[in-house]
Specification:
globular; FAD; Methylenetetrahydrofolate reductase; about 290 residues; oxidoreductase; flavoprotein; Mehydrof_redctse-like; alpha/beta; eight-stranded parallel beta sheet
């Protein structure tokens, strides 16, 4: 991958965080306003925590992207209230996963259900991201995730890939996605510079049941980081160079899963940009 292409991806990279206590202060301490920050939704932390965190970040000058987990929304009335709230906060981008709420809180059993309803509301939302899984989902069968991505393509503006630590799997999967006719830009999900002990600590903050799901969904992260040498996000990106350089693959950006290790992730990103000769690694590509 060319240095300029990698610089562009790193300068525009967005961060995913969990809405735990104190996360807004930590972001404002280590990350320059202007960066896109996505805020997860989980039953252990509540949708209110997601929305409140997103509102605070947007007010501080970040581009906040709340995750609106379909199975956590009670129905059309609550969805309308959420959209009104986001409009007042100036938030125009959302990410819509199905979520893990069991049973669903209301009328939306899947992300597609919510997306269909969303189109009839004329909301102030201009960008909508949906999930994609290069590797098997720990709960949902592969054929279901593939069909779901196809079904959602007409309602979304981008797809965001879940974590995968094998560049070969990512390359093969993305080629198949494009061959199926899904042309939405892909925001490539990668893990940031994450320490295993800190990752385990995050899991304890989100409730017992939620923590169990968190650990199960991120088994690959623990396994990879427990190996000698751990995980190196730069090496991962370098091995994906042919995909990142190929316009047909449609890589639209990087989505860095921070697991709330904001300081470490931002320090890693800045270091990579400095190594690439970037004169201002804190700047953001608009």
């Amino acid at each position: 991958m060319s240095a300029s292409a990698l610089r562009t991806l790193l300068k525009s990279a967005r961060y995913e965080v969990l809405p735990t206590a104190g996360i807004v202060d930590r972001i404002s301490e280590h990350v320059v306003p202007g960066r896109t920050i996505t805020v997860t939704a989980s039953t252990g932390l509540s949708l209110e925590a997601t929305l409140s965190t997103a509102e605070q970040l947007q007010a501080l000058g970040y581009t906040a992207v709340p995750h609106i987990a379909a199975r956590m929304v009670q129905g059309r009335t609550e969805l309308e209230e959420i959209l009104d709230r986001l409009g007042h906060a100036g938030i125009d981008t959302i990410f819509v996963p199905a979520g893990d709420a069991t049973p669903p809180a209301g009328g939306y059993a899947s992300a597609l259900d919510l997306l269909v309803d969303l189109t009839s509301m004329a909301p102030p939302i201009t960008q909508i991201g949906v999930s994609a899984y290069p590797e098997s989902h720990p709960i949902i069968p592969d054929d279901v995730t593939v069909q779901a991505m196809w079904d959602k393509r007409d309602y979304a503006t981008q797809i965001v890939s879940n974590l995968c630590f094998d560049p070969g799997i990512v390359s093969t999967w993305l080629a198949r996605v494009r061959a199926r006719g899904i042309e939405l830009p892909l925001i490539l999900g990668i893990a940031g510079k994450v320490e295993l002990a800190k990752l385990a600590k995050v899991a304890t903050k989100i409730g017992v049941g939620e923590s169990t799901r968190f650990l199960r969904k991120n088994t690959a992260t623990f396994t990879r980081m427990a190996k000698p040498g751990g995980y190196n996000p730069r090496k991962f990106l370098d091995r994906l160079s042919p995909v990142l350089d190929d316009p047909y693959m449609g890589i639209g950006g990087l989505h860095i899963y921070t697991f709330n290790q904001i300081k470490d992730t931002e320090a890693w990103r800045r270091k990579q940009l400095e190594l690439l000769g970037d004169p201002d690694p804190t700047s953001v590509v608009s």
